[in-house]
Write a structure and sequence with these properties.
196 residues; mainly alpha; 70% helix
């Protein structure tokens, strides 16, 4: 009975954020199939270690930290620059050896997300999406956490394991790069006046 209570509490707290996690996973991996796997693995780890979640803290930020650490560990070989591997990530991976039947089924939720991501891409437009996707990963994730997911600087700092000042710096740098990259886009669409 206790397991069912834990599962219900986990689903109530964690599952409302599956869309945000999937959108971020797509941005990180740039591949929808890999993003689905990444979100599923994130939710499995989160469920396994739900007893370590501190009630009253931001569950969305906690899930994003697990997502990010899972991405780093799973894809670090594909990333051209060396990535930091955290001890807690190794502990999560070592503990994540087998699955049990009480884990929540996220496949159905993830299947419904594909259309949401595609519609988000339509809203943003290819030029804007490409500008965001072309940012270096540390700037891309900071701007997405801040401006799309609306997380606080403190939460972002905890997710990416850097000081708040570094978070602010990355967000400012990302915005500056986006302004530069989108200047022509803005002129073509009449957001800024063309020079005569």
């Amino acid at each position: 009975m206790k397991g069912n209570d834990t599962r219900k509490e986990f689903e109530e707290l964690a599952m409302p954020h599956v869309d945000s996690l999937y959108n971020m996973a797509v941005r990180m991996s740039t591949n929808k199939e890999d993003a689905e796997d990444l979100v599923q693995e994130t939710y499995l780890k989160a469920y396994r270690f739900f007893n370590t979640f501190q009630k009253g803290t931001n569950v969305k930020a906690w899930l994003f930290k697990i997502l990010r650490n899972t991405f780093i560990n799973k894809y670090r070989k594909a990333i051209s620059s060396p990535s930091e591997v955290l001890y807690e990530d190794i502990e999560l991976v070592n503990s994540y050896v087998s699955t049990n039947n009480n884990e929540p089924d996220t496949k159905e939720s993830i299947d419904t997300l594909k259309s949401k991501v595609e519609s988000l891409d339509d809203i943003l437009g290819d030029d804007i999406k490409n500008a965001i996707d072309s940012l270096p990963i540390e700037y891309r994730e900071a701007i997405i956490y801040s401006d799309i997911e609306e997380l606080t600087y403190k939460d972002i700092a905890e997710i990416i394991n850097v000081p708040i000042g570094t978070v602010k710096s990355r967000i400012n740098r990302a915005r500056s790069l986006l302004r530069k990259n989108l200047w022509n886009y803005a002129k073509e669409r009449g957001f800024v006046k063309r020079e005569k």
